[in-house]
Amino acid sequence: MKDFRIKTLICHVFHVLTHHRLQIDLLNLNNSIGYGSIGSILVKPIHAKKSFGQNFLQDSNICRKIVDFARIGESDTVIEIGPGTGQLTDAILQTGATVYGVEIDTDLIPQLKDRFAAPANPVGARFHLVEADVLELDWNLLIPKKHSPRDVNDSSQQKQIKLLGNLPYNIATRILTRMAEERIGFQSFTFMVQKEVADRILAAPGSKDYGYLTLVLAHRFRREKGFDVAPGAFRPRPKVISHVMQISPYVEPQEEIDYPFFLRLIQTAFRHRRKTLWNNLTGLGIEPDLLRQAFESLRIAPKARAEEISLEVYRSLTRVLSFTP
Ligand code: SAM
């Protein structure tokens, strides 16, 4: 009996050591962030893919801080962009919210399903996995009927959906501009991006960071600065500091402008940053006399640069030049 206990103990110690060693080996592989699992069986290591902008959060305190900052509660429906290995997903689910995770990487799907959607898992009913590219996603199909009276742009819908994501850095600005340009409805969008991108979103007129991204988002959203996250919170470690921030659509009604023209105007205004605003805007193909009158009536200096002009003045320019009453 004693021999048996000793043997069992030795086996156990051996198992712990080899298992631990296996984990360390996997973590030491280039870009490997651990191993996947199906039930209790370990499967192939998960390699972070650069092509999908994968830097996985390892720090559960940071995950909780993000969820707190997003003000997520039990009654919320959250769309998480890129759940990855599920650290942030776990923190969202702990609030009692319902989560729709949109993930492009099919290699991560089995692990996510196993972790959150297994029938025995009490959070299973609140977790839905959508295998899709967020840039191609039909938002109307994503939101289930009970949350979506007609479409996602419906204002009652906007009150219910919160978006959240540690965004893949390589396509973060494309995701954000798509949200704004296509006017996808939601209550708030809390996201992590490279600090340099957050600086561009939060920039004030006159700063070198101020540009198309600032204006396209500022036109529709209130922008809220959040907090920095150091590279050590991720695996693999990114080379840059990250920032968590939030955008939310203005609650008060906004005066309508010719939106496609506004987008063309701000794109053209910043096309060549060294040129004056006037020189850039001649690219719009507008009669010079008309452009001159608009500059005079809005008191824009002839030598002004695009980054010196406020959102309000760009909106006014849109009204004047697109003939929107
Ligand atoms: N949320 C996880 C975390 O915080 O650890 C992962 C964040 S990682 C920076 C970005 C995630 O977005 C990855 O899981 C990646 O596979 C996913 N992703 C990248 N491009 C995507 C796309 N076009 N559509 C949906 N998910 C995408």
Tally of separate helices? 13
Radius of gyration: 24 Å
At the first level of CATH, the class of the largest domain is Alpha Beta
Widest sheet: strand ordering: 6-5-4-7-8-11-9
Task: Report the sheet with the most strands, covering strand number, pairing sense and barrel closure.
Answer: 7 strands, mixed
Q: Helix and strand succession?
A: HEEEHEHEHEHHEHEHHEEEHHHH
Distance between the termini: 93 Å
CATH architecture of the largest domain: 3-Layer(aba) Sandwich
Which geometry do the CA atoms define? elongated
Q: Provide the helix percentage.
A: 25-40%
Label the structural class: alpha/beta
- Strand segment count: 11
Q: State the CATH topology of the largest domain.
A: Rossmann fold
**Strand coverage percent:** 15-25%
Oligomer: single chain
Which blocks of ≥5 consecutive residues have pLDDT under 50? 9-31, 36-43, 145-152
CATH superfamily of the largest domain: Vaccinia Virus protein VP39
Small molecules bound in the structure, each named once: S-adenosylmethionine
Mean pLDDT: 85
